[in-house]
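Late entry, written up from scratch paper. The run itself happened at the end of the previous shift, but nothing got recorded in the book at the time, so transcribing now.
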Amino acid sequence: MKKLKVIELFAGVGGFRLGLEDTEHFEVVWSNQWEPSTKTQHASLVYEARFGSENHCNEDISEVKTAIIPDADILVGGFPCQDYSVATTLQNSKGLIGKKGVLWWSIHRILSEKKNPPKYLFLENVDRLLKSPSNQRGRDFAIMLKSLDNLGYAIEWRVINAADYGMPQRRRRIFFLGYHKSTALYKKLKKGNPEEWMCTTGTMATAFPATSTSSKINSFTIEEDLVTLSEEFNKGGKLSPFQNSGVFINGTVHTTKTTPNYHGKRVVLKDVLEKGKIPDEFFIPENDYPKWEYLKGAKKETRTAKTGFSYNYSEGGMIFPDALDNASRTIITGEGGKSPSRFKHVIQTNKGLRRLTPKELERLNMFPDHHTQLDGISNTKRAFFMGNALVVGVVQKIGQTLFDKINDL
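Output as recorded:
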């Protein structure tokens, strides 16, 4: 069977590529990675060191002309979470201009300008996308769904926490797949039962089994044009109408709350720890223990803002040090560096408390060891990459399942 050709946008250090090419059914034919407002493009340097510079573009995607991007079967990417509202429409244009710098509209532009658009989309984002912004819950996702509907795609989505399926990190992200109306999968989804698709027969349900916990599926139409949606969708609504699983086809949303259904092997934090000598820089000096304990602990205190305004502040305690017999907490971009922090991982060893090494952080995202190791790239920067990355195992599983579905029809 021939490989599916992939365009990888917002590539970071290549998590999507690792997951897809690991299945041996996908080939990345063009990639783009650009970090705005930084002089040295560290992530792009790592990407090129691992995958080569051929067909890799290190330019702002909003400035890249669609004509230089080759045709492909599937477009993938973890695009930045921004404000997706529609800024304006122009007479005699394609009807839509998104806000400048909002990278969702770069994906939209590429799909709309290509004579042969990709038949499939595979995208990732933070799960709050389903309920942002706070004054119009779900508006951003509704704009996205409708804009893809206008371009001829049906969408299925699922919020997946990697640890719920035995992977070593608790990392919740929304993954969504798009099927162009020219594909057999689109036609199958259109003819099928939405609840069955979400819970048993769809790509997500096959890759990551789940059970619906709602007594009924919530269905509604999104018929408005994008500008009206941007201004009016769920205005004043306290809750988003979008649940953690759903499909959208031909202007109609079907969505339900699902819970994971997994009984296999589980990898936990202790399974990824390095054996052997750990460099001293990762051990926390004993005189810093009280600072770490304070930041990780429960608090109820009065604080004073810079303006002089006093307010009551409280937060719960965290498990400290981190539990070794469970999947790890989510890695965030501020994971690196020696300074005490509430959010960095700290483990107990027989030599005292220490932070996680870059290799251990790579393993929590299921990257190969040393993937981000490169001259000129600091350990703090390597931790930052892993805070931005996705869990490769999730991509691999969805990619394999998507390939199987395409070839089963």
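The longest strand covers residues 153-161.
(Scratch paper discarded after transcription.)
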